[in-house]
Amino acid sequence: MRVDEFDKVVDQWKNYIFRGPLEEYSLEIDPDISNDIAAIALYLDQKTVKASGEIEEFYDGYRSAANDILELIGVCLEQDDENKVVKVAIAPNNSSLQEELQKHIWG
Q1: What are the angstrom distances between the C-alpha of 62 and each of 3, 30, 45, 69, 79?
Q2: Entry pTM
Q3: For residues 6 and 3, what is the distance between their CA atoms, to the nearest angstrom?
Q4: What pLDDT, on a 0 to 100 scale, did the predictor assign at position 99?
Q5: What is the pLDDT of residue 67?
Q6: What's the CA gap between 14 and 42, in Å, rounded?
Q7: Do residues 71 and 104 lie in contact, with contact meaning Cβ atoms separated by under 8 Å?
Q8: Residue among 4, 53, 6 at smallest CA distance from 33
Q9: Which domain holds residue 54?
Q10: Residue 104 confidence (pLDDT)
């Protein structure tokens, strides 16, 4: 992903998410996460929040798909209210999830 595209995704996410109660928050991206992966996480988060205003079944489906993708790429978004920061971080290892995924793929 080009730098300007990454910056565009980050700016769109910030402009959509950092409003109201989150207005004073900042974004922090773990340096071990590539810009491409961070952009995917932020894009999915923004789209999921937008989908929350839609029909509940649509939102639930979108949220589930976004969570599956984030788990697959090993990233999570964490909101730290004490420090007023949203972090794109490496997700904790979930070995039971990996086993479930392997069973689903290979039977």
Answers
A1: 27, 25, 10, 11, 20
A2: 0.76
A3: 5
A4: 66
A5: 82
A6: 9
A7: no
A8: 6
A9: 3-106
A10: 59
Classify residue 65 by burial, with Cβ atoms within 10 Å: 0-12, 13-18, 19+: middle
Phi, psi of 30 (to 5 degrees): -55, 130
**Contacting residues for 89 by C-beta, under 8 A, at least 6 apart:** 30, 33, 75, 76, 77, 78
**How confident is the model at residue 48, as a pLDDT?**
81
- Sequence-separated (6 or more) residues with CB below 8 Å from residue 79: 25, 85, 86, 87
Q: Which two tokens stand for residue 26?
A: 């900042």
First to last CA, the chain: 35
Q: What's the structural domain count of the chain? A: 1
Mean pLDDT of successive 10-residue stretches along the chain, which has 107 residues = 85 90 94 93 85 68 80 88 93 68 59
**Separation between Cα atoms, residue 56 and residue 66, nearest integer Å:** 15
Say which amino acid occupies 61.
Answer: G
